[in-house]
């Protein structure tokens, strides 16, 4: 089994739009070690992150956080160790377009 440590995804989504940060490739498992949320504005922002098994439509139970506050000019680092199977999707959104998301981890194939 090959393990590849990498930046899994980077995104700066439009405000109030649930966007895909990372999708697990076919025949691969992934461990997301850390997700960073960076607010590039002086104004506080709210963000949400969800894990959608097999890429199904979003439901409330998929959220690992919801409308969490990140202060202006600040970064939140979430070290979670999320394990994902093939085709699972990591999604995120914020109430402003000044928030960027990064996911770091390893793919096992």
Overview of this protein structure:
- This protein has 109 residues and is mostly beta strands.
- It has strands at 3-11, 19-23, 29-39, 45-52, 63-70, 74-84, 89-94, 99-108.
- The strands form two sheets. A four-stranded antiparallel beta sheet has the order 1-8-3-6, with no helix packed on it.
- It is globular and about 45 Å long.
Keywords:
single chain; 109 residues; mainly beta; Jelly Rolls; four-stranded antiparallel β-sheet; globular
CATH class descriptor name = Mainly Beta
Structural class assignment: mainly beta
Strand order, largest beta sheet: 1-8-3-6
Largest sheet: 4 strands, antiparallel
Global outline: globular
Provide the low-confidence segments as ranges. none
Taken as a percent bin, the fraction of beta residues is: over 45%
**Measured on Cα atoms, how large is the radius of gyration?**
14 Å
Q: Note the total helix count.
A: 0
Task: Find the count of extended strands (DSSP E, 2+ residues).
Answer: 8
Oligomeric nature of the chains: single chain
Distance between the termini: 6 Å
Give a quick summary of the entry.
The protein is mostly beta strands. It is built from no helices and 8 strands.
Itemize the secondary structure elements and their pairings.
Layout: E1 3-11, E2 19-23, E3 29-39, E4 45-52, E5 63-70, E6 74-84, E7 89-94, E8 99-108
Antiparallel strand pairs: 1-8, 2-7, 3-6, 3-8, 4-5, 4-7
